[in-house]
Write a structure and sequence with these properties.
single chain; Hypothetical protein af1432; four-stranded mixed beta sheet
Length: 706
């Protein structure tokens, strides 16, 4: 037992060391600015002078505003095509001539046109062709420009015409718009006098003109425009002004103004960018010392205040996993995204810890994790302050929950807390409400909504670590549970006893600071094994006592067997180990006193084999199981009292608890005499209420009136 205890502690130490090594390995090794500051807050350090010349960098918002302005006012670049368009124009006219010639042949064949009429048609088309060639040539000389469809006012549209490395600015209305050019081609054909000669001829040519337009010879060059735009954006200066070496930046106690904040951020950027004299090994040593100190404090807290947790493989693994998940989430967002770490649902981590462990242990583990995460926050103090309080509020909001819907109430509490604390910091720094709705508020909203992940993760952890949440305990304590229905049907007397014990245990455990729901659930199942042989137990007998026919040792063994039988049934019904503990521990390693004492009385002077009268144990190891032992014995013994008075009940309760204490049944439990005294008081009150005296209703003496 002692070896196992120390092996778990060694495991915990190794786990903490591995966690430190993991965090140190991933921790950035760059030089860090030694001062912490924020706009609107006092400068708490000594007067700061510029250690060297450095530029005052523009903020991200300023750079974005300048670049957006350049993009918005950028004038696109167009180029002029001269070679291909001549080829296109020749092909265009040739195709028209081909269509015209084919139509003439149809006309001649269908209508017997004579030579004069044929020559007249050819002459008209030749005149139209000459005019068309001249019109197209003039249009291309003046330039036909293709204006993008996105342009609303084409007359005001401007562009640079790029030619031979020279750009000249033009308005689009100085040229022929491509759309107008196509319309003009159709119009010139209508005015040529050819359409009315033959509808068939006119239709074919008009159809070709409407569907096959000549391209513009001035058009947008996307690659050229994008290249020039990129060069203009790259040319935007990232700084505005310089700070000279030795120049005063800020005095101690002064409020950091907007400009001073910009100067300090610029100095920070320059300092952290220069890693020429950085010793990465020493940085790792420094980070290791900080994190080792933090983990050491956590280890010492658990060692002195909750050693039971420290000596649990499961608890150590769970805590290490939670811490690494929180820190890993921060590192992932920090390294691989552009968003703030405030989007991470930090409140989810203390909720998960608190679901399975006590408040103080859960919070200290969460707080240690938040301190590490604070290294990656822009303002470490603000981050740790806000997340610590939010985590505490989240835990309080879920403290007594027995409904899954409570998580949605917690989401509201968490977001309101975020909003209040964020507003407090903004008002403290700026003294006005104008900047309350920042990006962080929306990130806090997302973080709060992500608490909906709580329910599926709780279910996952219950399966991975064999944990038991209040939600599962509520389901197990439902008397419609198959195991409890089996107990009620087979052993109704035992079931009533179990319900009474559960009520007693719940009241006492809640007062002593234990898990009252776990205690109640365990109490309902503690005598499950009696359903295997109900006839051996007095509360299920109706008249005849089977033990009258058995020897004392055999009777004791039959009674003791209900513990192992209960474990077997619990396994059959797949009850969790935490509930099975109540079955194995509710008698500890005590003896069946009735049969043990009877054997001593019947065999004076003989050596008794105590193992034949002794329960297998183990002894109770928690507040919940020890209160269960008390309640089980007290409830059963209270039924044997002849007179129910506060004094007789108090005497009975005291005798049973003192007897168990003197017998060493409480040795494995961290329970104080004050808690034992409190338990006695509550048991006395509850038993007195159960067996309080009742009023005898008078009967009517006159039988006629009855």
């Amino acid at each position: 037992m002692k070896f196992k205890k120390y092996s778990v502690i060694v495991y915990a130490i190794l786990l903490f060391l591995l966690s430190v090594a993991f965090v140190v390995y991933l921790f950035p090794k760059e030089k860090k600015f030694q001062y912490s500051f924020s706009e609107g807050s006092p400068w708490l350090h000594d007067d700061l002078m510029a250690p060297f010349d450095f530029p005052v960098y523009k903020s991200e918002s300023e750079l974005k505003e300048e670049k957006d302005s350049i993009k918005e006012n950028f004038i696109p670049y167009f180029i002029k095509d001269t070679l291909m368009l001549k080829v296109n124009a020749v092909d265009y006219i040739s195709e028209l001539e081909k269509i015209w010639t084919e139509d003439i042949m149809i006309k001649i064949n269908d209508y017997d046109i004579n030579t004069f009429e044929e020559n007249l048609l050819i002459k008209k088309f030749d005149l139209y062709k000459i005019f068309l060639e001249s019109f197209i040539d003039d249009a291309y000389k003046k330039c036909v420009v293709s204006i993008p469809d996105t342009v609303e006012d084409s007359d005001k549209f401007r562009f640079f015409l790029y030619k031979a490395s020279v750009s000249k600015l033009y308005y689009a209305n100085s040229f022929i718009a491509h759309k107008d050019f196509k319309d003009e081609l159709s119009e010139q054909y209508r005015n040529s006098g050819l359409m009315h000669i033959d509808s068939l001829t006119g239709y074919n040519i008009r159809n070709y003109i409407s569907k096959n337009q000549l391209p513009a010879n001035v058009y947008y060059d996307k690659d050229l425009s994008n290249g020039i735009l990129e060069s203009q954006l790259d040319a935007v200066s990232t700084s505005r002004g310089m700070v000279q070496k030795g120049e005063l930046i800020i005095l101690k106690g002064n409020i950091v103004s907007e400009y001073e904040n910009k100067v300090l951020l610029s100095l920070k950027k320059e300092v952290e960018a220069d890693d020429s004299d950085v010793n990465h090994y020493l940085i790792s040593v420094g980070v290791s010392l900080l994190f080792l100190s933090l983990y050491l404090i956590l280890f010492l807290y658990l060692y002195y205040h909750d050693r039971k947790v420290l000596t649990s493989f499961k608890a150590n693994t769970f805590f290490a996993l939670q811490m690494l998940l929180l820190i890993g989430s921060v590192l992932g967002v920090f390294y691989y995204t552009e968003i703030s770490i405030n989007v991470i649902p930090f409140a989810l981590f203390p909720l998960l810890l608190f679901t399975f462990y006590r408040f103080n242990v859960s919070f200290i583990v969460y707080f240690a994790s938040i301190l590490i995460a604070g290294f990656f926050a822009p303002d470490s103090f603000e981050f740790v302050f806000i997340q610590s309080i939010v985590g505490m509020i989240a835990m309080y909001s879920l403290k007594n929950t027995r409904k899954r819907s409570q998580i949605f109430i917690s989401m509201i509490y968490v977001f309101i807390t975020y909003l209040l604390l964020h507003s407090g910091f903004v008002l403290m720094r700026q003294g006005e409400f104008t900047d309350l709705m920042t990006t962080d508020v929306y990130l806090y909203g997302i973080s709060s909504v992500l608490l909906v992940l709580y329910l599926p993760i709780v279910y996952l952890y219950e399966k991975l670590f064999s944990f038991l949440s209040d939600f599962t305990l509520m389901e197990l304590s439902d008397t419609n549970n198959p195991a409890l229905r089996h107990l009620a049907e087979k052993t109704p007397g035992t079931f009533q006893h179990s319900v009474q014990v559960a009520n007693l245990v719940e009241s006492v455990t809640a007062e002593l600071g234990g898990n009252s729901l776990l205690a109640r659930t365990g109490a309902l199942y503690h005598d499950l094994g009696k359903s295997a042989h109900p006839e051996y137990f007095i509360e299920n007998q109706s008249g005849n006592n089977i033990h009258d026919k058995l020897g004392l040792e055999e009777s004791a063994q039959r009674i003791i067997s209900h513990v192992n039988a209960g474990v077997e049934l619990a396994r059959k019904y797949k009850l969790p180990n935490q509930v099975i503990n109540f079955i194995t521990m509710h008698h500890g390693d005590s003896v069946t006193k009735y049969f043990y004492n009877s054997w001593i009385n019947e065999n004076p002077g003989k050596q008794v084999d105590i193992t034949k009268f002794q329960y297998p144990g183990p002894k109770p190891d928690s507040i919940e199981t020890v209160v269960m032992m008390m309640a089980d014995a007290i409830e059963a013994a209270s039924r044997t009292l002849k007179v129910y008075t506060p004094e007789s009940i108090e005497k009975l309760v005291g005798a049973i608890i003192d007897g168990q204490l003197n017998d060493g049944q409480y040795d494995n439990v961290d329970i104080t005499m004050r808690q034992i005294s409190t338990a006695k008081k509550i048991f006395t009150e509850k038993i007195s209420n159960i067996y309080h005296s009742r009023i005898v209703y008078p009967e009517i003496n006159d039988k006629k009136q009855q």
